[in-house]
Amino acid sequence: MSIKIIKKPNSEIKSENNSQIREKVSDILLQIQKNGDEALLEFCRKFDNYQSENLRISSKQIQDAYKHIDSEYIKALETAAYRIKKFALYQKEAIKPLEIELSAGVTVGHRIIPVSSSGSYVPGGRYPLPSSALMSIIPAKVAGVERVIACSPPDKSIGTIHPATLVAMDMAGADEIYCMGGAHAIGALAFGTKSIAPVDIVVGPGNQWVTEAKRQVSGSVGIDFIAGPSEVLIIADKTANPAFIAADLLAQSEHDPNARGILISLDENLIQEVLEYLKTYLNDLPTQSVAKRSWENNGTIYFADNIIEAVELSNKIAPEHLELQVSDVNLLIPKLYNYGSLFIGPWSAEVFGDYVSGTNHILPTMKAARYTGGVWVGTFLKVASYQQISPEGAEELAPIASELAELEGLFAHKLASDLRK
């Protein structure tokens, strides 16, 4: 491969799973298991300065939140919610139950069963993230989950969940909402306390403490996946719009200092044009401090001689978001298989997927796209098989099962088969 690296990252992204965080998270989770609500409230006070004794958000608080959000923002959230729900409904329709008579007297099939309860973790931070509430709650409700819990840490300026996040949680259909964040919130969702019943699966992005907590509770409860810093990779040729590319790279970079913006260009002139636009946009960007640091530390630009090299590199990187800004996208798509979500053509900006196109933005990072997709309605559905066998069917199957059971030294299995011959 003759790929040239035009811009290297200035630093390696360190694994967030270091031993110190592991130990601290382990202790937090143990305290939640042992002391329940007492420990949960103590951690909420310690880490989030949350002073209320009641973590559950009341219906009055939810209704008041609507009064504190501009009507245009509410309309935007309603539109996004509608599109996310519509796509999730179409996805659910594609997941069909199955039943077939495999041979005489042997009927097999599967049922589609929603999990009973789910927990949606919605991050806090510098700004509210209501879009993450929509993305994690709506697919669960469409799947048929009876009890969907949502939680988010308090906004430091108001001491409780930001009104925009609360409105989004309510709009999405959350059944219970709690003001709590961090590893202790994940512990409460996974193990339960006296006031909060545990859930079957926890989904949603979070910081390094949330990520490590999800890693540690996995198995006791289902999780979507372990997520790291957000990523975008753009494959572009000479027909691409350099202004679009620069804006999309910065849109990714402004998430946080560890976010990764990656360009694989098939044209050297395009690279220079993109760099010029990056410089121009950064001058006036309100989030310049984060975006510039992220781009300088983690931004990467490759030059590829041909499209095959670009595709091979992209599949190796397995990005969270993959944009195609090339003249013949149909040539690339069948060859690309490692990505969280694909954005086809110059007008398919990654930002649309973040908010309103209808697809989900909770996606695999750190090469996890090699083995999983993002959160979707199927995340909350179990495909459970069954069989119904008649005496005629058992007569055919029993001798085979008996032979295999004897081969494996499982003689009660053999007996159970032989009795049905």
TrEMBL record:
InterPro entries: Ald_DH/histidinol_DH, Histidinol_DH_CS, Histidinol_DH_monofunct, Hstdl_DH. Pfam families: Histidinol_dh. Signal peptide: none annotated. Pathway: Amino-acid biosynthesis; L-histidine biosynthesis; L-histidine from 5-phospho-alpha-D-ribose 1-diphosphate: step 9/9. GO terms for biological process: L-histidine biosynthetic process. Zn(2+) binds at residues 252, 255, 354, 413. Its EC number is 1.1.1.23. One of its GO terms (molecular function) is zinc ion binding. Binds 1 zinc ion per subunit. Catalyzes the sequential NAD-dependent oxidations of L-histidinol to L-histidinaldehyde and then to L-histidine. Belongs to the histidinol dehydrogenase family. This is Histidinol dehydrogenase.
